[in-house]
Each structure stands twice: as C-alpha cells, then as structure tokens.
Amino acid sequence: MDWDALEGEFHGIVPPRFTPPEAPADPGTPIRSDDVHEPVRGDHDRAFDVERATITLADVGGMEEVKKRLDLAFLGPLRNPELRTLFGKSLRGGLLLYGPPGCGKTFLARAVAGEMGAAFISLSITDVLTMWMGSSERNLHDLFAAARSHSPCVLFLDEIDALGHKRSQLGSSGMRTLVNQLLTELDGVDGNNDGVFVLAATNAPWDIDPALRRPGRLDRTLLVLPPDQAARAAILEYHLRERPIAGIDLRKLAAATDHYSGADLAHVSETAAEFAMRDAITTGEVRMISQQDMLAAVKEVRPSTDAWFATARSVALFGNESGEYDDLAAYLKKRKML
Ligand SMILES: Nc1ncnc2c1ncn2[C@@H]1O[C@H](COP(=O)(O)OP(=O)(O)O)[C@@H](O)[C@H]1O
Ligand SMILES: [Mg+2]
Questions:
Q1: Residue 268: nearest ligand to its CA?
Q2: pLDDT at res. 190
Q3: DSSP-assigned states of every residue in 244-299
Q4: Which tens digit of pLDDT belongs to each residue from 211-245?
Q5: What average pLDDT does the segment 269-278 reach?
Q6: Phi/psi-derived region of residue 117, left when phi > 0, alpha when psi is between -120 and 50, beta in every other case
Q7: How far is the CA of 86 from the centre of ligand 1 (A)?
Q8: pLDDT confidence of 255, banded at 50, 70, 90?
Q9: How far, in Å, is the centroid of ligand 1 from the Cα of 106?
Q10: Domain positions in the chain
C-alpha cells in the first residue's frame, strides 16, 4: 500500500491494481492456462484446474509479519539451494496456513505461487472427499501426479481439517487410508516431489490429524490473522475500484475497521453501495458513494471473526501445552482476550 497516495481524500474510480481470484464480483477469474498447460485428466476424466497466478506478494496489502515468515519458512529456503545443503535442510514437507475465515489464506497461497512463477493447483479436501466419493485415494494420487507434471507447482490443499473431523462421517478406517495416502504423497515415496510445493490451509488446525503435522509433512505453520490497517486499506480500495465514489478516506476507514476480515470489508463496501443506491431510488437523484455511507456500513456490518476467536481462545488456554499456538496466544493477549 502506497501510503503517500492515500494522504487526503481521493476521488473517482480507482484503477484496479490486481485481480483477487476470489473477488465476489468475478468468481471465475482463475486463468485456465490451456495454452501453457493441458488440463490434466485422470482415469475418471476429471481435470484439475492448473492456474497461472497473476498476483504476487506485492499485491498483498500490509501483513508484513506474515510475509516475513513466508520468506523465512518457505521462499528463502527455496531460493537458496546452497544454504539448504550447508544446513542440511531438505525442502520436504509443506506449510500450513491457519486462521479465521476470510482473512487471506487462499489469497496468500496464490501470491506465493505468483512470487515463485509457479503453477497453482487449488483443491479443497472436502471436494476430494465428496465429489468422488469412494475413490478419494486415487483422486489424491492423481492430484499429486498433476502437480508433479506441472512442476514448479504450488499445490494448495484447502480445508485440510476435513481429513480429521470428518472421520466419523466416512468411518475411521476409510479416513485412515486417506490420511495414509496423503502422507505417502507428501513423503514423495511414489513419485518425485521435486518442484511440488504443498501449502495447506485450515480454519481449524486443532482438528487436523496429528500424523499430518509430523516433521517432513505439514510441519511448519503460519498464523494468518485479520488484515492489519494497511491490508484493510488495500482490500477496501479493491472493492471500491469499480464503484462511483467521492470523498473516500481509506486511511480513516481502515482505522475504523479493526478486527474486520477481508470478507467483512467486502460486505462493508456492498452495504455502502446499497445505501447510496437506495437514496438514488427514493430521491430520483444519483449520487456517489460517500465516506458517510462507508462509515454507516461499518456500523452495520460487525466483524465476523468473533466466533473463531472464541474457539481459538479455549485452544490457546487448554490446548497449547506444546506451544504450537504461541503466536495465537500472543495475539489474543495483545487484544486482551487472554
Ligand atoms: N492483505 C490483503 N490484501 C488484499 N486483499 C486481501 C488481503 N487479505 C485478504 N484479501 C481479500 O480478502 C478476500 C478473502 O480472503 P481469502 O484468501 O479468501 O480468505 P481465507 O482463504 O482465509 O478464507 C480475498 O479474496 C482478497 O480479495
Ligand atoms: Mg480460503
């Protein structure tokens, strides 16, 4: 975020700086780079969407701490093979992103792929489980095969907790087989995982099968918290970019939306647009979306992450013997929730 550009008010339509893949206005942005990559078809004639990420970490507003950790835990080792040899570190295993919903986990994963110039395959574990019920192991295998054939590739496994807490639904032995299959794929026993970088995401790391979090697997974790002020300004700017606005002070709005998630900020922008439109309908006079509309919308839309933090709080209190949630505990303390 260029803060200088934010000094004072800005008017008019802001040109889009990037295209978040999950923007509600255009849900279909994933680019099927069929010209670069053929979609991979498995035995069951399914295709995994292989994207070329169009965003990099520069498009992620704020979140400097997360970016720094991404660099240390993931991008740095990747860029420095000689240091890896020196310190005897392999690239095996993946990075687990966790945090409240709507706060940028998927967005960050895409940005990492973009940063590496790698292909990006994203799939939710729930899809693996339900879309092809009965052949989930095969699906996982095909998924990793697809990633290998597109290397360098970031393989993003969303909702990875589904492999833990859905255990009762599929019967524990079936789920155990699936976890084992994922472990096999992660360990690269069946195939060479060179150039396949696994990122996983969850809102509920405490539900994840512990076997998946052992060394060499999803052994590094990264807490993705609600957007900080700079991130909130970037998110609001994005959601207002194609709307008629006048006199919007992004910095003030960002300051007034502490604890709001990216999704909440999208909702705020929507609500403000509704206010202006409602006025236009009743008065017959079209007007711009104003700072007042935005502030009124902020009052109406409450941050949605409270429920998540309530759960997180009990985990930090009662489930943090090993210290794996120290980051979370530190944040909760800062917010005086612990
Ligand atoms: N730091 C950020 N900079 C810009 N946009 C962001 C940022 N964090 C989140 N967003 C926006 O918020 C939306 C929701 O984030 P998403 O990655 O889908 O959350 P999660 O995967 O954690 O549920 C994204 O589509 C993105 O547009
Ligand atoms: Mg997501």
A1: 1
A2: 61
A3: -B-SB-HHHHHHTTTT--HHHHHHHHHHHHHHHHHHHHHHS----B-HHHHHHHHH
A4: 888 887 888 899 999 999 999 999 999 999 999 99
A5: 97
A6: left
A7: 36
A8: very high
A9: 7
A10: 31-223, 229-300, 305-338
Task: Note the pLDDT of residue 178.
Answer: 80
Distance from Cα 109 to the centre of ligand 1, integer Å: 10
> Which of 107, 222, 250, 259 has most ligand 1 atoms within 8 Å of its beta carbon, as the pocket-test mutant?
107
For residue 325, pLDDT beyond 50: yes
Question: Does 50 sit in the ligand 1 pocket, CB within 6 Å?
Answer: no
Closest CA to 148 of 112, 189, 114, 109: 189
Two structure tokens written together for 287 = 């007007």
**Span 229-300 CATH architecture:** Orthogonal Bundle (1.10)
103 Cβ inside 6 Å of ligand 1: yes
pLDDT in tens, 128-183: 777 656 677 888 888 899 999 998 899 999 999 888 654 445 556 667 788 888 88
Please report the atom of ligand 1 found closest to the CA of residue 110.
17
Fold of 31-223: Rossmann fold (3.40.50)
